[in-house]
Design a protein that fits this description.
heterodimer, A: mainly beta, four-stranded antiparallel beta sheet, 0% helix, globular, B: mainly beta
């Protein structure tokens, strides 16, 4: 089945460690996105990529990094510079740019907890 | 600036009741898109509807209906005869159309947690 796979589902990290969250899609979508969700808040955009080898910062990119070497993959690294990394992270993709060209499709999310 | 407000943080109803989730948005653009997503306990956001700013017709899909009113900048969502399986967090979202500068970015409201009790 086509969809978006995020791994791991749960991740625990010690302070000062970098961690990488995986996001793979087999929907042949061009655009991919990373959102962060905190309790009682909406989703906030971290990074997005419209095409391979290109990505842009979203609203809360500080302390995060991404790469887009393949169309199917858009991994997110949460670095030690991110002051409050405990959150639920959602990866999404869209055929064209979401909005004018359709909706976002989401993965099941990765819950990161910093100990 | 773009903004989406879902003033209802939590709603609790008894099964078979009708429930309306409110969504108010702010935008400076004349062309924009509105969305509703459902987030069940599993965490994945499930797409429910997308509506562009030029289409003000209300939409019905089974027990779900949406009321889009540009005059009040609202895009409310009604579930008729609610069921326990409707329990989830519901998000309203907005995307503006910047033409060649589009980013595909969606602005999300804070979400409304709906609990449907048997």
């Amino acid at each position: 089945d086509g969809g978006i796979t995020q791994s791991p589902k749960y991740l625990f990290r010690k302070e000062g460690q970098n961690v990488t969250l995986s996001c793979e899609q087999n929907l042949n979508h061009d655009a991919m996105y990373w959102y962060r969700q905190d309790p009682g808040q909406g989703l906030r955009l971290i990074y997005y990529s419209q095409i391979v080898n290109d990505f842009q910062k979203g609203d809360i990119a500080e302390g995060y990094s991404v790469s887009r070497e393949k169309k199917e993959s858009f991994p997110l690294t949460v670095t030690s510079a991110q002051k409050n990394p405990t959150a639920f992270y959602l990866c999404a993709s869209s055929h064209g740019l979401a909005g004018a060209f359709g909706e976002l499709f989401f993965g099941e999310g990765s819950r990161l907890t910093v100990l | 600036a773009q903004k989406v407000t879902q003033a209802q943080t939590e709603i609790s109803v008894v099964e078979k009741e009708d429930v309306t989730l409110d969504c108010v948005y702010e935008t400076r653009d004349t062309t924009y898109y509105l969305f509703w997503y459902k987030q069940p306990p599993s965490g994945e956001l499930v797409f429910l509807i997308r509506r562009n700013s030029f289409d003000e017709q209300n939409e019905i899909s089974g027990r779900y209906s949406w009321n889009f009113q540009k005059s009040t900048s609202s895009f409310n969502f009604t579930i008729t005869a609610s069921q326990v399986v409707d329990s989830a967090v519901y998000f309203c979202a907005l995307s503006e159309d910047y033409g060649s500068s589009n980013t595909g970015k969606l602005i999300f409201g804070q979400g409304t947690t709906l609990q449907v009790k048997p």
